[in-house]
Each structure stands twice: as C-alpha cells, then as structure tokens.
Design brief:
The chain is α+β, with helices and mostly antiparallel strands. 25% of the residues lie in helices and 27% in strands. The chain has one domain: Aminopeptidase (3-Layer(aba) Sandwich).
Length: 221
C-alpha cells in the first residue's frame, strides 16, 4: 500500500478524451484515460517496469462520480493499512476508513474518487482527490488525499495505473498542479511517486498529532 499523511495520499499525460459513461448496477463510472504522455511524464512505453508487469487482465480506472464504490475503497484502505502495519484484524478499521474518505471527499463537489477494476468487475484499488483552497490566482491545485491497492494485488502495477489516471483526470477537470503528503520513511511509496513525475518540495516536517514525519510531493500537470 502507498501510504501518506492525513492531508494527502494514504497509501498513493496530456489531456485525453474520456470514454462514454458506463452504467453498472445503477452507478455511472466514467473511464479515466490512462495511456497518457507529456513533457516530463511517463508514457506507457516509458512507464516504470512494475507498472508494465501488472498482468491484471482488463484493468480499467474509472471516475466514480456517484461514489458507488466508496465502501469498496474504505475496505481496501482498511485492509491495506492493516497489512502495512501488521494488524491481524483489518476490518476493525472499516468504519474509520469510511469516515476518513467521507471527510476527504464530501466538502467539495470537485472531489474525485477513482476506482481501479479488473475485467470481472472486482475493485482492486482507489484514489481520492480533492481541490486545495487558497491556491495562487489562476493556479488550480488538487490534493491526492488517499490511494490504496487491495493487498492481494500489490506489485501488479495498479498503483502506477492509478497515478497515471490521477494525472489524466485532474487535467480533464482543469487542475494544473497536484500535491500529496507521505511518511518520510515510506521509501517504496516515494520512489513510485517519483517515477510518475512527482517531486519533493522541501524537507520533512513533524505532525504532532501523529508523531510521524511527513514530506510533501508535488506534480505539475
């Protein structure tokens, strides 16, 4: 799992056309373009090797406008954090996960929930994005609040696919800049973010509420 701080990603191309709306079980999921290339960013040809080795048949990243898969995202968040922290009871954090995602997404109608699905419709990962207030005039900034992958699918490129789709979806929505926070000792996540064009913006800083050190990463869209 790619895990960041409370203000950003808990786990963690060019504008492209978005596929038509798909209707599934009463919910409309919009496909987010994933094979994106652009200055300073990875194309599928140049993507990190662990993304190309995904071998997840029919993987698609969807924009869940109606948040039909919020519970799936909460379950993945709970299971992934439990796997990361060695918690034998992952579902004990399920209610907290729902609350955390609601707090991240509910304040703004511009918030986005991205869902990664396999060809059988199984939810394998998610990303939660929200606009950042107080940005300089003419500079729309979004924050990657949370990103998670189902533990059984770790190492199959789903995190990279979600990051690529995040860039595409934010450009489609008119954002020009993105930020996230991650634990400074989560080297695996930081390296993945950097492979997909994110860069650190300064030194680490301590959040007293968590007693953990975070670092901020940013991405120019």
């Amino acid at each position: 799992m790619l895990t960041a701080g409370p203000r950003a990603a808990r786990i963690a191309g060019r504008r492209a056309p978005i596929a038509p709306l798909q209707v599934r079980a009463g919910c409309r999921d919009r496909l987010a373009a994933r094979s994106i290339a652009g200055p300073g960013r990875c194309s599928r040809r140049d993507a990190p090797k662990d993304a190309d080795n995904a071998r997840v048949t029919g993987l698609a990243v969807l924009v869940d406008r109606e948040r039909c898969h919020l519970d799936d995202a909460a379950r993945i968040w709970a299971e992934a954090t439990a796997a990361r922290d060695g918690d034998p009871e992952p579902l004990s954090g399920l209610e907290l996960a729902r609350e955390v995602l609601h707090r991240a997404l509910d304040p703004s109608q511009e918030s986005l929930l991205l869902i990664a699905k396999g060809d059988a419709g199984e939810v394998l990962g998610f990303a939660a994005l929200a606009p950042v207030g107080g940005a300089p005039s003419g500079r729309r900034t979004a924050e990657l609040k949370y990103i998670g992958v189902q533990p059984g699918a770790w190492g199959r490129g789903i995190g990279g696919a979600l990051l690529e789709a995040t860039s595409s979806a934010l450009r489609e929505e008119g954002f020009s800049h993105a930020v996230l926070e991650v634990y400074v000792d989560n080297i695996r996540a930081i390296r993945l973010y950097q492979r997909w064009g994110w860069h650190t913006t300064g030194s680490g800083y301590l959040r007293p509420s968590s007693e953990r050190i975070f670092v901020e990463l940013a991405l120019e869209l």
